[in-house]
TrEMBL record:
This is Peptide/nickel transport system substrate-binding protein. Keywords: Signal. GO terms for molecular function: peptide transmembrane transporter activity. InterPro entries: Peptide/Ni-bd (IPR030678), SBP_5 (IPR039424), SBP_5_dom (IPR000914).
Amino acid sequence: MAAALAALLVSACSAGAGNGENQAEAGGSGATLVKGDANTVNSGTAGKGGSITYVLERNILNWNPLGADIGVATQLVADVYDPSTFFSAPDLKTVEMNKDLLLSAEQTSTSPQVLVYKISPKAVWSDGTPISAADFEYVWRASDPRVCPKCEVASTMGYDSVKSLVASDGGKTVTVTLSKPFGDWQSMFSPLLPAHVAKKLGDDGTPDGLAASFNEGFRYKTSFPDWSGGPFMFKSWQSNQAATLVPNPKWYGKPVTLDSLIFRVITDTTQEVPALRNNEVQIINPQPQVDLLRNVQALKGVNYQLVRGLRKQMLLPNLNNPVMQDPVLRKALFTAMDVKQAISKTVGQFDPEAVPLRNRIYVPQQTPAYQDNLGDQGSGDVAKATALLTGAGYKIDAGRLIDPKGTPVPPITMRYLANDQILQTISELFAASAKAIGVTVNVQSTDSVGETVTHQPGKDFDIFAMTWVGQTFLASQYSQAFMTKAGLNFGGYSSAKVDDLLKKALSATDPAESAELLNGVDRQLSEDGYILPMYQQPDLLAYKSNLVNVRANGTYFGPPYNGGEWGIR
């Protein structure tokens, strides 16, 4: 997540984004490439009625959007039923307050830091219960390890510094006082969870009851949320098939024009374009590949966007497993990997501007914060990788790497998400480069990112080829990814120096100071051989040309960030 609203001025990532005028380039008799201002492209007035189906590429196993093992698919659906205080706009630089939910949200004091949220008097949950300070308090209690040490939450940032949370105006004003500065305060309370529902799910005021409601209740393992604070609410959910949502009758914002919004699960990417062609679905947001993009471009009556956002392809090592605990070995593996070659064989085939990503935290559009901190890692220089190993006492004997104690380095397991041809190719290339320095890599797929990153039996990994979906709240997001024992620290990384730099970055309110601290984090990660960034994943969004207000959003919120405004001409 990122430093406050004006922390970083990030260039719009929309391919060809220009002066705010919507532009369209028709591909002959095929699909139309839509360009324009990232935040307003494809704006229009919707007619009344109709249904839109949006494709989810992964099944949903956890409906708690604040949970530690949340998947992207959960967030995409949560956009339209679970209200957030702020959201990241498509241009990657704008953080917008949810004007339906809030009248205002302000920092009224810096010493101590005081945040005041004024909730709209119209804002209610779908059963008519007012959205109030109680809901803010529930999210705080569940996200603060001092209050709920057993709550399996994705982010504790900011919540672990709450000194007090006071309700006034009948619960419609929330005043939060922090014990230490938190630059990314706009990332807090996004989304909210209904406190009155939490009580039904086990929250009895005790830490154990709170944990039960959060870890188990809001997951809805065998059902689905029967409440809403957004424009839509659930009608049904069939695992591995579809979630059907209908307008929330208690919705307090701009009127919804659709009769229903369906999120259909299609895990086989090759089936998405045929489904769009046959009008079985109206929106797809797949990871682009050469044939898939060409098939989209050949469709009639379809618009598409191809943008470069905050989705990053990375190689994540698992430091919990003994074989990956030596930073020298990790650095050697990453040095032997040729990222340019991987790009040329995958994403470069349809995105000629794709280049190696040389920073884990920033992307090239985020100049001047973006710096190359990788050194030789990603270069494909097998000779330098070998020299790293031999300098540390390793040797290669008969094509097999022997560690300094004389023990052969065992085979390592590398996973990628099933049906992702690009990540499969990257994994196979990594295995080939590792073989050149005497390491055997067994490439295996997984059908669940959540179960893999939480190290479930049979799904665990030594290296994971994965997509990291960024937000504009950088200090918060990467504190959760890199701080010792943080909620999104899936690789088990720990560094006292990085912990200190991140704590300082969380308190920094000056963009330049924050950037220097976060680049210090990135430099230390390179020194420790933790995570190899590959490239920015292009974001392809294709939709029927009669849809309005549908647009790409290359942040964690994704295209449904404004799903309540979607409609049909």
